[in-house]
Amino acid sequence: MPTVILETVALDRAQEDKVVSRFKADRDDQYREFLGRCDDFEKEIANEIGISKFTYAELEEEDTDLKKLQGWLEKIKKLDFYGATLAEEATERLRTCEASLDSYAQRVFDAHEENR
After folding, report:
1. Is residue 7 part of a domain?
2. 7 vs 92: CA distance, rounded Å
3. What share of the chain in percent tops pLDDT 70?
4. DSSP secondary-structure letter at 65?
5. Average pLDDT of the chain?
6. Cβ count within 10 A of residue 54
7. Is 8 part of any domain?
8. Is residue 76 a contact partner of residue 90, using CB atoms and an 8 Å limit?
9. Distance between CA atoms of 62 and 102, rounded to whole angstroms?
10. Residue 58's closest CA among 13, 89, 104?
């Protein structure tokens, strides 16, 4: 896929600030949606732990969902030219999701006789 670079030339500083603000706002909208999906992911992990559903199939499903979150955040970051305000929070939240999955994976492995 070819890379397209757009250069904007503002007529004045106020117009330039407006364009940059719009780019940041658009990325923050995407980060907000991403953070919502992280909430869903963490709730799903907590639910599986709550009902003691420690299966390899469920772990694989959750791992697939985490990979989707990781890929999505990378796509957002590639478009975050000006450092949107929620970028750091989104990165930290992904780390929390990764840690949640690691913890769940350990419970899955511990629950199976062949791993003892």
Report:
1. no
2. 31
3. 89
4. H
5. 92
6. 18
7. no
8. yes
9. 10
10. 104
**pTM value surpassing 0.70:** yes
Q: Region 56-84: what's the mean pLDDT?
A: 97
Nearest in space to 34 (alpha carbons), one of 83, 85, 89: 89
Structurally, the chain folds into a number of domains equal to: 1
Instruction: Determine the Cα–Cα distance for residues 85 and 27; give it in Å rounded to an integer.
Output: 9
Please state, in angstroms and as integers, the Cα–Cα distance from residue 42 to each residue in 37, 46, 94, 106, following that order: 9, 6, 10, 16
What pLDDT does 9 receive?
62
The residue segments making up the domain with residue 42 are 13-115
**Is residue 59 in a domain?**
yes
Helices 87-111 and 56-78, interaxial angle, to 10°? 170
Report how far apart, in Å, the C-alpha atoms of 116 and of each of 57, 104, 108, 112 are.
19, 16, 12, 7
Of the candidates 17, 26, 43, the residue with the CA atom closest to the CA atom of residue 86: 26
- Count, residues in the chain: 116
| Residue 6 counted as domain residue | no
